[in-house]
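User: I'm writing a short methods note and want a consistent example. For alpha-L-fucosidase, I'll paste the sequence; you return only the structure tokens, no commentary, since I'll be parsing the reply automatically.
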Amino acid sequence: MKPSLIYLFAILFGASTVIGQKKYTADWASLETRGIPAWFNQSKFGIFIHWGVYAVPSYAPVGPGGYSEWYWYQLDGRTDGPHDATRAFHDRNYGKDVPYQDLEKQFTASMFNPDQWADIFRRSGAKYVVLTSKHHEGYTLWDNSQASESWGRTWNAVQGTPKRDLLGDLTNSVRKAGLKMGYYYSLYEWFNPIWKKDKQQYINQVMIPQFKDLVTKYKPSVIFSDGEWELSDTAWHSTSLLAWLYNESPVKDEVVVDDRWGSNTRGKHNGATYLTSEYGSGMQPGVIWEENQGIGQSYGYNRMENVDDYKKSADLALMLVDIVSRGGNLLLDIGPTADGRIPVIMQQRLVDIGAWLDVNGAAIFDTKTWKETRQWSEGKIPEMKESNFMSDYSISNLIKPAKDRAHVEMFFTQKGTTLYTILPGYVPQVKIKNYMPSKKAELSILGCNKKIAGKQVGKDFVIDLSSLKPDDLPTKMFTIQIK
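Assistant:
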């Protein structure tokens, strides 16, 4: 082909690509046709970070819903008066006449080392990170003019005490470590003067330009919207904002967005958004979803929590397996301190998960759900109510044998023609019910060089592990690969 023809072909092909590119209109029916970029559900595991002025008091009563990032609301936002324990803590440590905003002077981030954070995240095995760019307190971790102007005071990290672009610096380090970077963004602010006076004025003059500033400057791969519950999606102009995001923004092709865009949107509009579960039981295959939880019971660092309030490393890895087997992602939260350190117990938990994934990651990343997500033992399967918020669901309890009910024996994922069977612990014999692999199937245990064999027994496939000793296994929760 002549060079001139090649050049003409390139122009025509490029033009057809642009012309054929889909434009989304500002309605859910159109936005839902976009779908969720494939990288997200393939990644399976992300790190959530709650960090803001609330890291100074880092206080909440310990228990379900004991979120330290809600400290200011517990002091000044409740309609039934301040939370007694929170008020007593504040008065005792800061003084009765000291307003929450003054705590910003102690939000120094003086020991913040973004490269060290990013290294811990990389070692955890996570594939993406989501930082609170702004929580409901309105304080932004980047230099945003709407934040300080709408408050009539310095209310962002660059102009405020840290004197540093905390969000930008972490973003650079995370991306340098090979991970994707995203941001949590609260649509509303509890006490923003404009929000309290005129919600639509706040949306048009603060929220929308602030959101576009964040996206345009820092180009997130994930947006975790929140604080949507006081208004409908129509009032928030959510579909218009998402149409801008998917049509015009610099991340229009890559970005994934959660389902929190109005009081009427959670659990809906799969395809336009992924669905969220918060300390919940999660969801089942068929939708793109993500479970988010803290390592403890709070998201922001809560110094009232002790070692027994933190989930054990094995339980966190088990949670990841359970969620992935059902087609979901896990967004696991850490809460740094006001001076910019990740508490060592949180670092240890993340590194432990990474060590398990170093051996068993093939059964997690880039996998899909199998025809069964898990296998129960004989007995009555307990009733489980699906809830995407504050359920009492515990997979750690469900794997424990009990006299009055069945327990979960194993979990399944698949990749191509390979089946992964993940077992919570050693058993001498594994029976996969109603399964017949190819006669040429190769069996192995990930991270183990001991040979194993299986045979067909009626409708079931039985794998003999009796020649193994528990010490032969690389991890207590281990994976059988049937290739």
